Amino acid sequence: MSEATDLKGWTDGADAILYQSCGACRHLWYFRRAFCPSCGDASPQTHKASGNGVVYSATVVRRAATPEAKAHVPYAILLVDMAEGFRMMAHGDSDLRIGDSVAAEFRPFTGLRTPYFVKA
Length: 120
Description:
Layout: E1 18-21, E2 28-30, E3 45-48, E4 52-61, E5 75-82, E6 87-92, E7 101-109, E8 112-119
Parallel strand pairs: 6-8
Antiparallel strand pairs: 1-2, 1-3, 4-5, 4-7, 5-6, 7-8
């Protein structure tokens, strides 16, 4: 399924962002799947991202969606175009704006260490 099955990302408890690519159609995507969402090929390759990107969109959450998130309000949610060519959603500094260059850190949020972007 992957050339790097031993890679662990933040959803596995490691401080890393993983993405996948398709050898058949060259599509890139974030959040692991057993197949390419573009062409259906069943042999995606997993890669570790650099953590660098550019803010595509930003919003500030002022009402917590869950009781656990209430302690973090207000918090920023970003869409980040990563240097490798995929887009991901993550938390980040509230003063980030569209077009800002950012770098990923990992910070606690509702009991998990999640990607958190700061100005690069």
